[in-house]
Amino acid sequence: MNPRGLDLVACLVFAYLVPASFAASAEPVGRRALRIHDPSTIVVENGFFWVFGTGKRILTARSPDLLAWTRLGSALTEAPAWATEVAPGNKAAHYWAPDVIKIGERYHLYYSVSEFGKNTSAIGLATSPSLDPSAPSHHWEDRGIVLRSSAGDDFNTIDPSVLLDADGRLWMAYGSFWRGLFLIELDPATGLRLAPTSPVQHLAEADEIEAATLVRHGDYHYLFFNVGLCCRAKASTYRILVGRSQAITGPYLDDHGRDLRAGGGREFLDKSGAFIGPGHATILKENGREWVAVHFYDGSRDGQPTLALRRLTWTDDGWPRVAD
Fold first, then answer.
1. CATH for the stretch 7-322
2. Of the N and C termini of the chain, which has fewer Cβ atoms inside 10 Å?
3. Which of 38, 205, 254, 298 is catalytic?
């Protein structure tokens, strides 16, 4: 089975929402929206689109066409042994804001273990040869902690975003509140930090900042991020800003030349009508087109977090925008 052309999606995207099915099991239920928070990068394997999200041991869902989604339950079969020590208050094994990337023959799943409102956190890594739970080779193997923060640190290790650069170097952006967003280099061979003392780059700082996403386009690296407050249903104030830099390590500037470390950021996506609090942007490139995937709080459904896909285009001077 091959994913159907995204021209079909372009015809069916309406009111900022791609219709989809949602179920608590592997059985699709009608044409409803996929409920998800903090969607990962969408990846394609064996004719299906796959996405991961915040949930008990990480939510997993797949779709043959980006329209009808099936939820497959938790990605991880059990909590990693180190999670309780990192975040003893997170007894439900509710992990946040994953990202996924294929490196060589394995998928790398990065995710956040934390307690809400605290920076006693860690970003963990699990790897598997396959995303499909029914595949004989499927097994998420715990690779341990990539990076950790503790009370007293001026950063918070959640919301990982990973990017394999054009020269084969692997990078991870992360951060939430405190002093904002940061970047470290990872080892492509292991998926872990390149070295315990490898440099940390400060990317962006603002009040209520989190949810970094790194994207390469043309001569620039782009940093998408959220400001505002999530997780308040229709009262959420999330919106998405962006800056860019020719060097992945920064500095990242907006279209007025303002440094993101000093509160800069170009407006990318904000609420509109029932489309409230868009957050955690990721980019999908497929069939020569680009799409931005976000969660939003659906004002027509009591503010439930919902997956949306919208066409991504670029201005003549190289800034991303959502197509009308």
1. 2.115.10.20
2. C
3. 38
